[in-house]
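pasting for ref
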Amino acid sequence: MRIFSLCTFSTLLGTLVTVLVLEPSLILGNTALAQNQRPPIAAPAVGSAGDFSPSWYDREGLTPDEAVNVAVYERCNRSVVNISTVSIRTDRFFLTEVPEEGS
């Protein structure tokens, strides 16, 4: 009976160490936090559709904010890059690498 108890304890301890090494987030929890946590911004009051007049737009059909954004992009478009978040997770059963996307 003593040998059976020691084998069972050894099996459980080995399982715990294996899970801790392969998937530490299962035991330790997720540690990723947002960099800037700000309170949500209140939505502006919704007006009627008749409030917008053509004087809000320039000759290209852009609002002043959009025109500024377009001007900044046109001036700095060589430095614009596509940012992609790809991570690799190890599959628990076959121990193969599985690519994932997202935040």
